Amino acid sequence: MLPARQEAELGLNREDENSLIVLKLGGSVITEKERNLTPNLNSIDRLAREIAEANVKGLMIVHGGGSYGHPLAKQYNIKEGYKDASQIEGLLKTHQTMLELNKLVVDSLIYHNIAAFSVAPSSCVVTKAGRIKTFYDDALRMFLKTGFVPVLFGDTVLDTEIGFTILSGDQLVATLATEFNATKLVFGVDVDGLYTTDPKADASAQLISNTTFEELKKMMPKIRGSKTTDVTGGMLGKVLEIINMMNASIQVIIVNAIREGNIYKALRGEKVVGTIIREE
Ligand code: ADP
User: Fold this and answer.
1) What CATH number should be reported for the domain holding residue 240?
2) pLDDT digits (tens, 9 = 90+) for 121-151
3) Number of domains making up the chain
4) Is the whole-model pTM more than 0.85?
5) What's the domain range around 234?
6) Which residues pair with 256 in a beta bridge?
């Protein structure tokens, strides 16, 4: 059952078909990353409210797995693909837990009067050796065109070479932003942006406020993954995906989504503490 909605009407609204923002909500923000299968309901509700208040036309949301998808994916080695039949149970469990987390996110968005519609990547994406090979995107395009806000997530997907794998929310947003010509890609994470080194491990880490795709490529060797269970590569995974988008004329913003108001500001194009990556 959906939670009772707030007073305002839930409507469809797509005034400018040329503007699209892709928003990635990190698993470290919407779940308690250190505690298995524990959602951060306060964060989910606050973010849904901020997204509703920002009221952008043309929005697609992707969320990560955090303590829902990652521990199971790791336990059953899902990312590495098919090795033996015992993994099938793990594949199903990983997918089911991601559906549970997705339901919490989508219900919360609907509660805040956003016409959010769950779209499972496993039903429209096939990968080849871990990279997106085919994207059956007709339904997604139609959802956007009619003003819905599709909500996707890092998911278990079938793979033409290794049988199955994990498709990270980060690979997904980079592909979606490029294929759908998004004007802006916003990453909401649990740190203030991209630093010179991992700010959780190194107190001298410095925030990179402004950079280009080209400069980012040069910085690559210094950037690490995530400390907690993350089968898809933490900040390093994000940067690799962002670099892949080099030819897309898009603005990428990484902000701390735990701090109230940041996602609102990033969506509205207001000044916000974080990392902005531009073409030049
Ligand atoms: P999410 O699950 O929210 O997408 P990740 O855990 O994958 O986020 O990535 C964010 C984490 O990456 C941060 O919590 C941080 O500790 C880590 N990290 C590693 N290197 C860096 C870096 N250079 N700058 C910022 N964060 C970094």
Assistant:
1) 3.40.1160.10
2) 999 999 999 999 999 999 999 999 999 999 9
3) 1
4) yes
5) 4-278
6) 189
